[in-house]
Amino acid sequence: MREAFRGQQRVDAGALVARLEAVSRFLALVDGHLPDKQLVAAHTLVERAGTRLALSRDHTVVALAGATGSGKSSLFNALARMELSPVGVRRPTTGVTHACVWGPLDDATRLLDWVGVLPRHRFVRESVLDGDDESTLHGLILLDLPDFDSVQRSHQLEVDRLLGLVDLVVWVVDPQKYADRVIHTSYLREFHRHRDVTLVVLNQADRLPPAELPRVVADLRRLLDADGLDGVPLLATAAVDPEGIAGLREALERTVAERQAALRRLRGDLDAVVTDLTELVDAGEPAGLNDSTVAALHRALAGAAGVAAVAEAVEAAYRHRGAAATGWPLVRGWRRLRPDPLRRLHLPGAPGDAKDPAESLVAATSVPDPTAAQRSALGLAIRSVADRAGAGLPASWPAAVTAAARSRLADLPDALDGAIARTDLGMGSRPLWWRLVGGLQWLVTAAAVVGLGWLALGYALRALGLPELDNPSVGVVPLPTLLLLGGLLAGLLVAALTRPALRWAARRARRRAEQRLTAAVADVGAAYVLTPVRAVLASYAEARRALAEAARY
C-alpha cells in the first residue's frame, strides 16, 4: 500500500510567476468593466500566491484534515514521534490547529504567522538528539487541523480557511466513516483540480480484519474516482504501529525533497481560476462598430447640437451682412437696424465680436435646446452604438459597453454647446467681391450725388437771376441729369444683380458651416461616446490575450 506521488511533471517557478502576472494584468484590464464578485477568486489567488512565494520556497506546509474520530491527531503525533496534539474520547478533540516544524522554528515563523497558527501551538521536531533520523523531513510544516464536521462552526471555518493556504492536504478517513457524504461532496470533490497535492489515507487500518482491508481500500478507491480524484495516492495507515505509517512518511519525505508541493498547489489554484475566468472572455472577437452606426450617431449629435439652426443662421447672416456691404449706400443704415442672426445666437463671427471663440472656457450660445424627438434620437443612437459594439461579447461585457457609452452623457450637452461656440463658421472676414461691389455702389452713388448737386446749383443760380451754367450734354441728356439718374439706376441695377449672387454664396456658406459644425460635434461624439466604448473593447481584447497567456503550461 505504499502508493505515492509518481511521474508528476515538475512545475517551473518562472513559468508559474509569468502566468500569475498574466492573471494580474487580466484583472487590471477588466477592473471596472466586470462585477467584482466574478473576480474575487482571481484577486485572492494573485495575492495569496505572491505572499506564499515570497515567504518561503524551502518549506512544505502539509495539513492533516479529517472528520471527528478519524485519528488525525494520533497520526500527527505518530509522524512527529511525540505527543504534541491532544488525543482523547471527547469530541471534538482538536479545537485549534497545531503545527510541527522540522527544522529551525525561526525560519518558519513568518510562514506560520501567515497560515495563522498561534505561537503556543507551534512545535519543533528536529533536534541534535535525533541526529539524522529526521533530516529527511527537514523543511516540513505539518498541521493538525480541527475536525471539519465539528459541531462548532468556528472549527469548520478554520478548516476551510487553512485548506486554501496549505501546500498539500492529507485527507484522513477511518473504516467507519470513509464513505461519509459530507467529506466527499463538500471537500474531496472540490479538490479534483488539486490531485497533484492531495493524498488520502485510510487510517486505523489495524481495526479491520486482514481479509477486509483490500475490500475497503478498493471501495474507497471507487469513491475517490467518482469524486474526480483518480490517480490520487491512497494509503492504509495505523498510527499505533510505526510500520503502519511508513508509506505515509515515505510520501512526505519525497514531497519535502522535491520542494514542488507549493508550486503544484498554486498551479492547481491557477488552473481553476483561469478556467472560471475563461467564461468571461471566451466568445471570440466582438462585432465592433461600423460606419453606418457611427454616421447615425453623428446625425443624432448634429440634431441635438442644433447644427441645422446654426447653419440656417449662417446663411441668413451671410445675406444680411452681404446686403449691408453691397447694397445701395443710401439704405444701408436701415439694414443695420435689423439684428444680426448670429449675434442673436451669441455665436462667433458676429460683427464687432473681437473675442476669440477658441479661448472661451465656457460656451454661452443661445442655440435652441434640442426637442424631445432629438433627445430621443440621440439616446437611441448611443444605444445602437453600444448594442453594435457589444454584439458577440460574453455576459457582463455588453453591460460594460453600454455603461461606457453613457458614462459621459451628462457632460454631452455642454460639450456640444462648446463645440458649436468654438467652431469657425467662416464669417470672420468680408469676401473681396463684397468690397468690390460695395466700392462700385459708392462710386455710382457719388455720381448721383454729383449730378444732384450740379442740378441743384443750376436751379439756385436761376433763382438768384445769375447767369445759368452751361451744362454739357450726352446726346440730348444734360450731364447732371445723366449723373443723377444714371447713378440711381446703376445702384438699383447693381443691387438687383447682386442679390442672386448673395443667395448662392449664402447657401455655400451654409454648407461650409454645416460641414465644420458636423465635424466638430463628431469630435465630441468620438471623445464622449466612441472613445470610452473602444476603450472597453480594447480592454476585452487585451484581457483575452492576457488570459490566453495565463492558460499556457
UniProtKB/TrEMBL annotation:
Query: Could you tell me which SUPFAM superfamilies the record lists for this protein?
Result: P-loop containing nucleoside triphosphate hydrolases
Q: Which domain of life is it from?
A: Bacteria
Describe the location of the G domain by residue ranges: 62-203
Question: Which Pfam family, giving just one, matches this sequence?
Answer: MMR_HSR1
Q: Which UniProt keywords apply?
A: Membrane, Transmembrane, Transmembrane helix
Q: Which residues cross the membrane?
A: 432-461, 481-502
* Signal sequence, start to end: none
Keyword Membrane among UniProt keywords: yes
**What protein name is recorded for this chain?**
ABC transporter
